[in-house]
Amino acid sequence: MENTRTHFIRRRHGASESELNSGPAVSMLPIGNKWKSSSVRSDCPSVEGSSFRPRKRLMERKDSQTSKGKKERNSRKASVRTGPKGEALVEISPALASLFRDFSDRSLEFSREVIERSGVAATTNNDRARLNIRIARTVFGKWSVEILTFLYSARVARFQELRKALGDISARVLSLKLARLEGLGFVHRAVIDTRPPGVEYSLTDKGREVAKLGEPVFLYLRLMEGSLNQTRR
What we know:
The protein is mainly alpha-helical.
């Protein structure tokens, strides 16, 4: 009786069912990782050269799956939003976006109510724009926002601390900006009785109110850039 392996090979190489049942037994001899017949009917194709490579087929399947997985991962990466330096950015959630929309609407209503209660004469859009531009240039000129932002976070800072935090700013320009903000009532300058005498800068009540009103703006922009929890290194 033919063994199962011989039966399989003869069927694979063209032997019919009747040939399998009536033909002489075929003795299969292992040669390396191949099987060769020692007695084969003339009408049954030789199985010489037949090779069983289950390991090779398994590796081919693994390679195919690995390639498919890489393509899927690459497609997912391509959909990630990135910043100007290639850093991954976090998308703002719809719930947070809705909170900021509600806040901005309430802020607009608040501004209108303040104008009505203050008795300020109604102005056109162009007039309001000119007034806002003048304030922006006076209060929020170059380095002014940076100084107010740092002092709001640090509470108190000395001159060299401010200069180091701001980076590319000369001592002369920083002195002029601090004097300007002090004159506008945003920054308080205190002389410290040390040797040599030192000077500390902090925000006035007016400066803190401006900083607190501006905090939601910075928070919104940080969320939109996906950098809410990122720190500079």
